[in-house]
Amino acid sequence: MNLKLLILIASVFLLGVEVMAQNKITVAGKVTDEQGQGFPGANILVQGTSTGTTSDATGNFVVEAAEDANLVISFIGYKTQTVAVAGRSSIDISLIADAETLAEVVVVGYGTQKKSDVISSVAQVNPETMLKVPSSDVGEMLRGRAPGVFVTLSNAAPGGSSNIVIRGTRSLTGGSNPLVLADGVPVNSINDINPNDIASLEILKDAAAAAIYGSRASNGVILITTKRAKVGKTDVSYNGYYGVQTVKRYFDTYNGDEFANLKREAARTANGGVYLPDASVFTPIEQEVLQSRQFVDWSKELLRPSQYQSHNISFSTGTEKTTVYSSINYMNQQGIYPGTDLNRVTLRLNADQKISEWLKVGLNTNFQISGRNEPGTQQPLISSITASPLGKIYNDDGTYRLHPTGVTESFNPLLDLKEVTNKRKENISYINLFIDVTPWKGFKYRLNASRKSGVRNNESYSTSKSQAGVTSGGFGSGYIEFRDSTEYQLENIVDYKKSIDRHNLGFTFVQSVIETTGLYNQTAGGLFPNDLLGIYGLPSAGTIAPPKLRTDKRDLVSFVGRVQYDYSGKYYVNASFRTDGASVFGKNNKWANFPSVGIGWNVHTESFLQNNSIVSNLKLRATYGSVGNQGIAPYQSQSVATARDYVINGTTRISGYTPGSILPNPNLKWETSTTFNAGVDFGLWKNRVSGTVEFYDTRTHDLLVRATIPSSTGYQYQYQNVGEIQNKGIEVALNTVAYEKNDLVINVGVMFTKNINKILHLYGDKNGDGIEDNDIANNWFIGSPTTVQYRYKAIGIFQQGENIVSSPQPLAQPGDIKLLDKDKSGVIDDKDRVITPNGVPNWYGSIYSDIKYKGIDFSFNVVTVQGITRDNPYLYEYVKGGSLRAVLNGVKQNYWTPENPTGNWPRPNASNDPANITTLGMQDASYIRLQNLTLGYTLKEALTSKLHLTKFRIYVSAQNPLTITKFQAYTPDRSPQTQAQDQSGTGGANQYPEAISFIGGIQVKF
Amino acid sequence: MKKIYAKVIWLLLLFAITTSCSKLLEEKPLSGITVDYLYTTPGGLEVGVNALYSLQRANNTPEYELSPLQSNVFFMAGTDLGLVRTWFDPYNTTQLHRAQDQAWLLKWSKPYQIIDRASALINSARNIQMDATAKNKLVAQARVIRGELYLDLITMFDRILLDTIPTTPENAFDSVTYAPANPADIYQLIDADLDFAIANLDWAVDYGRYGQGVARHLKGKSALWQGKWSEAAAQFDAIVNNGTHHLVPIDQVFGQNLQHAEALFVYTRNAKLGPANPGTNNGDVLAGGGGTWLDAVFNNRLYELNTGEIIQTVDNGGQSLGWVYPNDYLKSLYDTVIDRRYTNYYYPSPWVLTVNNPAKPNFGQKLPYSSKEKDWRKIHWSLKKYHDADVTSKPLSSDYSFKDIMYYRFAETLLLGAEAHWHLSGENPADVTALQYVNMVRARAGLGNYTTFTLDNFLDEHAREMAMEKDRWFLLKRLGKLVERQNLHYVYQSGPTSSPLNRKMLPYMVSCPIPQSEIDRMGSSFPQNEGY
To answer: Which pTM does this prediction carry?
Structure first.
């Protein structure tokens, strides 16, 4: 089936617009609000007909109705009123805000529900609080905003993103990213959406809520609904800010004198404990700098405060037939690493056209154009730590010195600033057309068709003077790469609601097809004859590597059914079922089924609580269901041979192909996560204190695992479905209006999450020793979290005079690391390694408060992550300056010397890394962070209207101004990359320092 | 009525767009070829065999550093002739010499991977319709590689698996009892593979491919390991007598161009067919390969002398690392005046160099002895066998070299031939052929003839000729001399003033540790070598 054709057909339907009308007597009137002001945009409907209108800008309306008809007047957030015409030609109505229903609609999969009807675990994040975080990353805006949602930094560079993990890691290799949908369309990145466009954001956390999204929903689902215009209202608003960012790093490096001492100590150890004269320890440059004391602080030289800004204008207008919402957002961010920046424009147009009473068409479009400069920041950032403070920045001729101290391992971090460019341009477009047919009461059919495409192009060039250029003999090198992905989705959604007496029934049926195609292509060249054209000189490059090319296609075909039943808003039973067929699964396992059930009880509606003055809301609910994870790339279930060419006779290239190191698996299938979720929602004293407590237990089985298999098979890995993981946890969200008197409102909220992540099973007991086998190669252990390190444990430093010879490490020297002999066997062997969770928090939470006093608003948000350790290669890796050889500078530690026996780091040694230094890598990464602090002032209405505005607010805000952590890196949020990851390029540019930002902004509404 | 009609039409129209073609779920790779092609077509057989060369190159002469390089440099430097200054630590029971070390995993897993690919090609070739001679030539290359790999495996690990059935998803999980194969069965397979190769490979082949010479050389080695002296002698004699391979002048042996008669097998590289930027570690999958660090690893950094009198030049090797060196014992074996190998296989002593930094007042004069530093990183006797004299293949300020790497050569054939004849003659010190072969090697070096052949003087000659190439460790192991000689001469020391660290090779270490992770994967039924 050609999806493109379908969408074309659907768009043709959009063109026909026709209107029908009927006539009776004319009723004129005015709708007002509680203050008596004209109420624009209220809906006036003649009951039992499709005739209706909306009030104009001053609240007036005219409608034709039968003399004995009833008028139904409504507006979202206000109580609906029914008024009998009773022959009158003039009727005035005052609308009363409905505190209970205000913003109480919750978006769920394929529909919306009243909050009181929701019985699964759905967290809402208020878009307004999100916007308090001045960031180009929506993920960052979600940090600390919902229990069970763990946000960590992925890449702090401009345009970077976060990892969002909902309720713990459920997969070993299948990925942890939630499925994000905007208006029913899956998005590639949550950052494709302009946060200013978000009308509501819901996070579906339990399987029952997410099961309707089947094999993609295992990691939870984030539903974004974008803004639409309201009938009869015209709004123009501007929201903008400007700010500066500065660097914060959570470690010190050795300064000039300290580094000189480290070097002397390291040389002394290598020289059998005897100090060498400085002339033998230091290079001529170092000696010179030691004399002149012109020490270099490389990070100060490299990093800079930078500015950033965001401007957003939205326009929204609507008539009875047509509503249009459009917006434009411009974001400009310079990075604190010079040369990095982001320019991003996001445009949106959401339109609705009523064709007749039962036919409506709509369009959502989202375009994002962005340009990013992200030159290879990784090596210079490492060099800014490892370059010696005893070096010189410049050569005598004013050019950058390649090796600041003359030592060839150590490069000048500033060298590449002007010499390496990497421009990334990206175009993302979403077009989503839908047609709503509502022919009969309670019945709704929607055809939802969408196309999304992303085109990304990278141009990277290192000149002949860059580090790469110099080391390749003074030639430039670079590459151009293209990525293109397109996804079509077509959905038929049928919804039917029926109430019989107090029995309310809802049915949903969905049929859906998604097809995604991708193409990646890279051409790289080296030995450029000159730098004149930069990367555009590629055709004349001395070497042009064979182009890299990958293309793939994946399809997903699905059927969904759901039944919702409730009795009088009191007792609820829901059930849903989804079946997914996915092309990426092995040929023997194409189809997957995902059922769910849920029950709920609105206890406060019972008569025994009716006259209670304390409990205003009490709901008990429980769900059970399963969702899947198809986190496998296309073709992984198949045997594919890749190119492996060779050269003979010096220059003749011969073609070679061979299967990779992964053995195919035709039985490969999805992971299934089954969740039991139980929750209590409560509200006390008219919801002045409200909250939710939830408990869940998720078991994920048939884990997609790149299992290591015996090498004697000729393969190293096979993707398999094995084992089981458990994520069990408790989430608490509490919100109180702590004070509310005399214009002062203080709102305080707390969130707490504890998740226990554990591998329950892996491959079973293959070796027959009665104990289930661990997977040591992958660091997977039964009963431990999914990410751990398995290493010896350092318990101190050997001291002089200690009886080392009869210790488990008889060959050790004083100053060496002492290891734990876990099994007390008297030798350090394999069995002494210990498991330490890596990046798994014990608990995390946040406290936030909003304070309003007249026009002033003040808010803050503190987030904390506790009981977490992370691996920190800066503490042990030679290339990151961690191994105390004093060839490179590094993160400052209290190292052992005979004169400093209390040092907790081993004795420096110039000739080799201290034995077992990696055991010092696991470091406490808990933190408490003041994430956001905002102070705003909204102009009084009287003043605002004089300016012909409806709202004017100015504010200042600080992001991340304070973090308390022991983790010695650029962020406590993520382990820096290891050398292997640096080399393989996995893990993103995560050494990029996290910034502290200060902004000022204004919000204006016309 | 009209309205209902319209509604129904709309619904039907839209609903009709329901699709559920299960065809959508069929998956066909778009940018890779299916393995079926490799195993069913003549073209597939050819590209499949070509790929084995690339896999072998990455196995034996890998790009970049870390474990892949360490696992090979171990056999070059971890002998009686080597000195390790830093970077890794052979025979350290808490570091390299453990079953957990990545280096052993590589030396175990990569051969099995290549063996599996070779076996798949060898087996599937039976059913491929094509010219028999052409087919046999292709199969012969796969078989010589498989034989070579099994010989490597058994001589490194002693306890190994034998499996010539290629793995498929269907048979991957057949119940297997993992147990060490009988060495006799292994050698039988090695010999059968090599015999097939000898029968089907030409003597003269494209530069970079396996020919009959290398097949016989390997067969001779296999025979030596089995104590089949006459078979060994016959194979080495055949190479000597054929004439395709012979000794070349000493300055050509490790010259820039290795396409000469002494080379039996060379791993080839080409910078222009390699990665755009050699500093990125992904070149070995490309035709030209990735850059190796073998030149840099064995060479000191004179250009770092505090006096700054020496700057990087092509002659002095440009950028280098100085992690491992030839040791003083090796130096003591040379007559440094007469033996041409001393000047051709090693970088010259600093004290014959002239100051080449034009900014220095003594430019052009002899490097003064006062410039000497007690830092072996900067100044030490260095190996030149992997020297790259082409600045486009190894830029001055780069550790990466794209020079071809000599892997088997005729001088070794002569030395092993000499040994084989000596054994064959009942260890007769006057064996004519043994003396003839060893004296050919000596003569080329400018030395006079041996008149008696003893194990000791054979090992001395082997050291002088083959030092820091890969065979020394295996030769000593085969002769039962490894532990004794290693403990006498191997050095692990960072500089002249630091005391040498005692790295005692214990007798069990003649068998490399079987990777613990592999034993784990095999379900622990496979026994570790004693001692680990």
So the answer is: 0.83
